[in-house]
Every structure is written in structure tokens, then in C-alpha cells.
Amino acid sequence: MPRSRIALIAWVAAAGAVGAVLRLLMVELSDEVFMKFPWMTLAINLLGSGALGLLVGVSHAWSRLPKWTIPVLGTGLLGSFTTFSTVVLAVVLAQDRELFTLTSADEVIPPGLFEMVAYLLISVIFCTAAAAAGMTIGRAIFGCTGMQCKHGGDGP
């Protein structure tokens, strides 16, 4: 494996560690574990989805963006900052410990089922919208409105 590839992997890993720690700090500072609805995880995922969309939009429009940008900032930093596994974990933690036992009984709706379903739907719909908005803004910075736009300059 070439040295440049090993260095890229190391940078992605380092950026991933930073993104995961940022997410952990934001959740810890919010006392989300005591909330029934995981507001901070939703905010983190919205912010990260928008930022990732912006990064992808800029990378599509600006041909001189360094090649390491998407793997390091996208996959590493933002990929670890926003994860669907965090959404699922937040949903599970928001439920009572006996959720799975309750669902096996007849005619029992587990407590917080509405919140769980709403949170999953909100996460999928609004994080997708945030990513799309970020991509649109990232491309618009360079005046790109069509699919074949490549800005060759030094920046916006």
C-alpha cells in the first residue's frame, strides 16, 4: 500500500475520533439521557447532514478542492459525528427497559412508541432534507445550478 494511502487512512481515523468526541461532548453537555426525546442527537444529525451535504456540493462544484477533503472531513469527521446507529441508540435508550417484554403481550402499546416512530421519521426526512439543502448551497456558492457545473477557480 502506498505511503500516501496509509497517511490518508490515518487522517480519516484521526478525524473520525474528533467527530465522535464532538458528538459525545454535545450529548453529555445536554443531559440527553434524562430526556424522553433525543433532541441533541437530532440536532447533531441535522447539523452534520447539512454540513456533509455542503461539503459534497462544494466538492462537485469546485474541481480544485483537495482530494483528501471528502474522505477526511466527510467520512472521518462528519461520518463519525452523525451516525444512524446513534439515532437507533437514542431511540432505544428513550424507551423503558421492559420495552421488548411489553411488545410480546397482547394489546399493549409500549410507552413512548409514538415518540420513537416520530423520531425515526423526523430523522430520516429532515436529515435528508438538510443534506440536500447543504448540497444545493454548496453548489450555489460557485454559481452552479446544473448537474455539469465544475468551477476551476481558486475558490468561491
Q: What can you see in these coordinates?
A:
The two termini are 35 Å apart. The chain has one domain (3-140). Helices cover 69% and strands 0% of the residues. It has helices at residues 3-30, 39-61, 69-81, 84-93, 99-104, 113-140. The radius of gyration is 19 Å and the shape is flat. The chain is built from six helices and no strands. It is an all-alpha fold.
Main features:
single chain, 156 residues, mainly alpha, flat
Give the SSE layout.
Blueprint: H1 3-30, H2 39-61, H3 69-81, H4 84-93, H5 99-104, H6 113-140
Helix pairs in contact: 1-3, 2-3, 2-6, 4-6
Total beta strands: 0
Largest sheet: none
- How many domains make up the coordinates? 1
Helix percent reads 55-70%
Distance between the termini: 35 Å
Radius of gyration, Cα only, in angstroms?
19 Å
Low-confidence stretches: 103-111
Number of helices: 6
Which class best fits the helix and strand makeup?
mainly alpha
Average pLDDT score: 81
What is the chain-wise order of helices and strands? HHHHHH
Shape: flat
> Proportion of β residues?
under 5%
InterPro entries: FluC
Keywords: Cell membrane, Ion channel, Ion transport, Membrane, Metal-binding, Sodium, Transmembrane, Transmembrane helix, Transport
Organism: Nesterenkonia sedimenti
Catalytic activity: fluoride(in) = fluoride(out)
